[in-house]
Structures are given as structure tokens and as C-alpha cells.
Amino acid sequence: MGYLSPPSTHSNMKSISPTKDEKGELCSYDSWLGKHPSALDNFEEVMNIAEGKEIVVFLDYDGTLSPIVDDPDQAYMSDAMRSAVREVAYCFPTAIVSGRSKDKVYEFVKLRNVYYAGSHGMDISTPLGSSKYEDQKHQIKAVDEKGNHVVHFHPATDFLPTIQEIIKVLKEKTTRIKGSIIEDNMFCVTIHYRRVKNDEDVDVLREIVKSIMKGYPNFNISGGRKVMEIRPNVNWDKGRAVGYLLESLGFDNSNNVLPMYLGDDKTDEDAFKVIRQIGRGFPIIVSSIAKDTEASYSLRDPADVLTFLIRLAKWKKEPVTENK
Ligand SMILES: O=P(O)(O)OC[C@H]1O[C@H](O[C@H]2O[C@H](CO)[C@@H](O)[C@H](O)[C@H]2O)[C@H](O)[C@@H](O)[C@@H]1O
Description:
Elements: H1 29-35, H2 43-50, E1 54-59, H3 79-91, E2 94-97, H4 102-109, E3 115-118, E4 123-127, E5 139-143, E6 149-153, H5 160-174, E7 181-184, E8 189-192, H6 199-213, E9 219-223, E10 227-232, H7 238-248, E11 257-263, H8 268-278, E12 282-286, E13 297-299, H9 302-317, H10 319-323
Parallel strand pairs: 1-2, 1-11, 2-3, 11-12, 12-13
Antiparallel strand pairs: 3-4, 4-6, 5-6, 7-8, 8-10, 9-10
Helix pairs in contact: 3-9, 5-6, 7-8
């Protein structure tokens, strides 16, 4: 089984926080690495487990394929990363699972040979004919720009008008908080405060958002990397999206499938948990600091991710050479 048991103290975790040891002291990165070993340093071990299995690759976008930057509209991925993802997607079914709207993440990634799940998995497109998912109400059959028959899955469609109303109110009420950005992610909303200069303004922004959202009980507020995220209260997240994609791509009954998920943020933890529940696969956290996580393996940053993806594609094409 390609899977390491989670440290027992990490179960039922609600958010990512710095990891503490038994004495309540912050863990060093090196001791954390003992529990979440580098997927690069242990590449051969990982790929020995993967040998003969059907690998499916899931990739988060921000902080995984692109470095974190101040301006969310400038979070470009490098050409080298694009080329590595393209190669990986030629070798294995590959999906990008992002908090951003599907269209926006496609604008950054620009690859046609990967699947996209935007809005934290609330906007997924897959080829027609594959999905046996019972929630027909939220599936729309369509023909894409290449003439392919596809299915769009939108479990939160009913919330769209309210989301637009929330965005309007948020924009009106937060104009005085310099540096704040309200990002329309289609089925969810992100409130950015990375560029808000002082902590008092961040606190005021938080209070404004909380106060507005009291009027919208069907929505939840969660956190991320210098963001607040507003999501409709539907039982759906990146973990459910991974399950949906595996099923839609025909891997639901396969005992041979090995999902590999690379992500850096709190919302990726839902996907890590699902892979743990499947009992096979590699939940890999991208982090240069020790933090509580359900992931088994780690990579330090997008540069590590790039090296890992290049090696992964090379392993598929030249397994013997890569394994030497
Ligand atoms: O699921 P993801 O693809 O990781 O998306 C999560 C959020 O990522 C973006 O925000 C983060 O990256 C920005 C650009 O580097 C950075 O400025 C921000 O502070 C980060 O939180 C994106 O803008 C959000 O909409 C996504 O929800």
C-alpha cells in the first residue's frame, strides 16, 4: 500500500496550524520531515509502491504550481512548470483542483490535456459518458470549444445569484480598506488581505466580512493564505471533487488506482483526507514550514514540485533508467 499512517495527534484537524511536539513546543522543519518525508528524497520508494498501479495526478494551483505573490492576478506559472504538467498529463490522467474559478485557472494553466475543477471543486468538467454520479440535477451536458461532449458538474448552482449579491455588498463595504481585494471565484468568493498594510485594518476587514455574512446563513467563512473565503453551505469540497473525478474518469471500482495529490493550503487537506480514506495513494503537502497536515509526504515549494513532476514523467517514460 502506497500510504503512510497519519500521526495520531493529527486526526479531526480543522485547520492548518504550526505543528507542536508532545511538550507543546513548535516542531522544527527537520523533525516534521521525519513524519512527512520529502517526496523527492524518497522518490524511488514512492515509485516502487506505484509500480504497476494506475496513477491519477491531482494538482492544486496557487502555492503549488505557481509561487505565492501579492497580486492574485499576477500568479503566473512558469513555462517550465507548464511544460512539466503537460508531460505529466500525457503520462497519467491529471486534474487541476483550485479555489479559483475554472476559467481563471485555465487562463493561467492554458493546457488542454488536463481536467479542471474550479471553485474548490464546485465547477468540474469531465468527458461525457464516463460519470455514473447520481446527482443528475447538477450535471449539464455540453459541447466544448473543441467539439467534445462534456459534462459540467455544478453542485452549488442555486447559490449563484446570492453570490453575486454578496460580492456587490462586499465591494461596497470594503472600499475603505486599502489593499483589500474581493475576488469573484464563480461559486465562491475570496477576500484578500495580503496587501493590507496594518493589522488593525485586517481586523476591521474581518469584522466587516463577518457582519455582512451574518445576513447569509447559507454560507460559510473559512481561511487560507492571507485570505478569507466565502463558500456556499453545500457538502462539497476538494476531497469530494477528487472522488467525483476518480469516478468520472472510470477509476471508482479500480483497486489498482493510486491518486497523487499535491497541494499547499487548508482546503487541500480535504483531498488528503479522501486519499487516506481510499487507503492508497500519495497526499503530498507543499510547505517550507512544519504544519499540521493529513499529508504523508512533502515538497518544500513550487520549485520542488517542478522537479518532482519532471521526474514523475521521466519515470513513466524511462522507468528503468529513473529507478537506477
Ligand atoms: O486552491 P488554490 O488554487 O491554491 O487557490 C487558493 C486561493 O489562491 C489564490 O490566493 C492565494 O494566492 C495568491 C497569489 O499568489 C495570493 O496573493 C493569496 O494571498 C493566496 O491566498 C487565489 O487568488 C484565491 O482566489 C484562491 O482561493
